[in-house]
Each structure stands twice: as C-alpha cells, then as structure tokens.
Write a structure and sequence with these properties.
The protein is 32% helix and 20% strand. It is α/β, with parallel strands linked by helices. Helix 4 runs parallel beside helix 5. The longest helix has 22 residues. The chain is globular, with a radius of gyration of 21 Å.
C-alpha cells in the first residue's frame, strides 16, 4: 500500500505542476475581472502571473509594466475568469476496447483536447473511460498533446459484483494497475425506472466496501445516483462525490440538507434530458445527448423528457440548501456545444454569477483542487480564460473564449481571428 500511495502522490504532484515548466511571466491588463470570490468583480484591473501561478490581482488602469512582468496581454473590453472545470466527461468515446481506444488516440485525441481548451475548459475529469485515458493523461502532462489537465478515473462497476470481497479486490487491482486519480462511473443502483430504482442490500454493501477500500488509498470515489432515494442511500453508505443531479422525482429540502450534513458534493449534468440542437444534425430536430431520438430514447422514453425539469429544479434545491454544486457535462460530443448545452440548462435556475461559482470554485472543490483552481486570486494556479464579452450579460458570453491559459501557459489565442469573441455553440 505504501508503494501505491507514494506513486499516487507523485502523480498528483505532476498533475498539479503540469505546464509550469513552460510557464511564462504574464500580465493581463485593463480587463474586467470576475474573481469568483464572493461575487467580487473588478471593472478594470490586472492579473500578474509568474511561474505558473497568480501572484497579484489589482484594480485600476494598467501602468507601465514592471521589470520582469513578461508578456503583456491588453484585455481592454474583455473579461477574465478562472478556467472552466468539467468534473465528469466521457473523454474517450465510441468503441472502448483496445482497437477503439488506439483509434481515438491516433485520430481524435489531439483535436478533441484542443476543442476542450477552445471552449475554456482547462481541467477535465474522465468518466470512467477506457484505460487509454491514463496514457492520455501522461501525454497531456508531458506536453506531447496540448490539452486541459486530465483527472483520470478508473471504472469499477461495484453494483454488478458478487460481494464485498470481490469489490475490494477490483478496487485494489485498478489502483495498482492504473494509479487513477479517482474511481468513477459507479451507478447506484444498476436498475433505473421503470424498475424500482431502489438499491438492493447487496448493492449497498458493495458500494460501502468500494468507498472504504478506495479511501484507504486516498482515491476519491464517485457515484451516479439518479433518484432522491438512491442519493440518500449512497450518502449513508459513505458517498462524498455524487455525479448527476437526481432526475426521478423531486428532491425535498431535507434530502438536500442530508448532502450538506454528509459533507458531500454534487456535480450537475443538468442538461441530461434537455433536447440537443445543432450537434448531431442541422435540421432543427431535437436529439438526446447521444444523437438518438428525443425523448423516446431517454431510458426508453419512460420519462417523456420530464427529466429535464426534475434536474433543473432539483439543482436549485440543492444550491439553496447550501450544497457545493459543481459543473459536469457527462457527454462526449463537441466540447463547445456541450458547454453551451449545459449552461443553457443551468440558466433556467441560476444567475450568471452563480454559474461562475459552479464552473469554478465548486467544481475545483469536487476534484479536491479547490486550493489550487477555480478562482482568480493570489496563490492559485494560473488557469485563466479571457472572454470577448461579459458573461454577466448572459450565459452565452461564457462561450466567447479568446485566450485560454493553463498553468501560466497560453494554450489558445484567437485574438484578431475570424469570429473571435463570438459564442461557439455548434459543430463547425
């Protein structure tokens, strides 16, 4: 165990510092700065970056840059915000076997990592993808592939397993084989409506064993709970990281307060059930998030699309009761469109300043990096998005990334290019 813990600590350090070897000294001047701290917005100010970290956030018009300030980005008329964090995305899609994963790495990885960056995502956690995600994590960390920071998860389907001993052995093997940053894609329970969606006693014992075993190695364990009762049962089993806002019934205030009492987090995936447009076709035909017919192909049409309403309202119920509510898409399609779809849905129940916290600090907390990411303040890693428009005027302006910086490295710079500063919402 000590050997594995040491390896995990080294991996975590490498992830946290990835990109700093090439980090520039930067000054972003004359920008509107949405700090993400207590709703504070600086109408005009500067952000100073050194060695991959933010070292100063100041108010007022920029003066002559100090010696050693490095590259100066004049962001007059633009908005600075912390890099977006997607807490759960299926990075490697399609056929998940070795051949499919190899094809993804060869044909798709570089392009799709850039699409994430161009959308403003600087950190993304995989949703229990193919083991190739660990190779992708290494290639991004080394700079071989330009992309957002990868938090790589292993998939262990504990609810399907025979007993607790089998679960513990599977967790041990996954950690030994892959050194994952987390365990993900754990559906609890396996059955969903029109079945009862109530976990069996064995599923509950398995979940508790899996959470406990992962905890021994300090590996976070994420649970998919789609119904209020399953959510509260998962909390009682020790779950701290919940993916999916419940969408089979209304959450009560008491159920939301149980999340707070358990010191647990919820990552949104609020767009599940809401029809997608302009991604899988350009004929104004609504689809589900995998391109299939809406709403017929959402869980065989059981909910007739009402999942869309449950999630949005339940998300607000969680928020109003003090739950640390983060951002995730749980999708695998074109990254800017996935961002647009999730924010469009969140916009039903949340203000732009709420969305800043959801995309930033809350999502950083979900991946245990709240001390390093999620806000524009001194000491944080310099993950910064410079938007061409003000997101306080509407959620669509979160989609106007012109410059994207990860760990002090300029990864994307679209200034002066066609369509710079305009929302990207559809496949090119």
């Amino acid at each position: 165990m000590n050997r594995i813990l040491t390896t995990l600590a080294v991996t975590a350090s490498a992830l946290a510092l990835a990109g700093t070897a090439q980090a520039q000294n930067l000054t972003i001047a004359n920008a509107r700065i949405i700090t993400g701290v207590g709703g504070r917005i600086i109408d005009k100010g500067s952000v100073v970056v050194k060695d991959g970290k933010i070292v100063a956030v100041t108010e007022g018009a920029s003066k002559a840059p100090a010696k050693g300030a490095g590259k100066v980005i004049n962001a007059s008329g633009m908005t600075v915000i912390a890099g977006y964090i997607d807490d759960h995305r299926h990075i490697i899609h399609g056929e998940r076997g070795p051949a499919g994963a190899a094809k993804f790495m060869k044909d798709d990885a570089a392009r799709e990592m850039m699409e994430l960056l161009e959308s403003g995502v600087t950190t993304v956690q995989s949703g229990g993808d193919s083991p190739a995600v660990f190779d992708l994590r290494s290639k991004v960390a080394s700079g071989e592939i330009k992309g957002p920071r990868i938090i790589a998860s292993a998939q262990v389907p504990v609810s399907k397993m025979k007993d607790e001993a089998t679960v513990r052995a599977a967790i041990d093997k996954a950690i030994a084989d892959y050194k994952p940053d987390s365990i993900a894609e754990v559906h609890f329970p396996i059955t969903e409506p029109p079945s009862t969606n109530i976990p069996t006693e064995q599923e509950t014992r398995n979940l508790a064993a899996g959470i406990d075993e992962a905890l021994k190695f300090h590996v976070p364990f994420q649970v998919h709970t789609s119904a209020p009762g399953a959510m509260t049962a998962a909390l009682k089993a020790g779950a701290k990281k919940l993916v999916h806002t419940p969408h089979f019934g209304w959450l009560t205030d008491d159920e939301a307060k149980q999340v707070v009492t358990a010191h647990a987090w919820v990552s949104s995936c609020t767009g599940f059930g809401v029809p997608v447009f302009g991604v899988f076709n350009h004929n104004n035909v609504p689809t589900f998030r995998d391109g299939s017919k809406w709403p017929d192909d959402i869980l065989n049409g059981e909910g007739r699309g009402r999942e869309a309403g449950y999630k949005a309202v339940n998300g607000r119920t969680l928020w109003d009761n003090g739950v640390d509510y983060g951002y995730c898409t749980d999708t695998n399609y074109y990254a800017p469109a996935a961002l647009a779809h999730e924010l469009r849905t969140l916009n039903l129940m949340f203000s732009p300043i709420d969305m800043v916290k959801i995309l930033g600090q809350n999502s950083a907390d979900f991946i245990d990096m709240g001390d390093k990411l999620g806000t524009i303040e001194t000491g944080k890693l310099a993950d910064i998005v410079i938007l061409g428009a003000n997101p306080m005027d509407g959620y669509w302006n979160f989609l106007t990334a012109e410059v994207v910086i990860k760990g002090g490295v300029v990864m994307v710079d679209k200034r002066g290019k066609p369509n710079a500063g305009k929302p990207i919402v559809h496949n090119p």
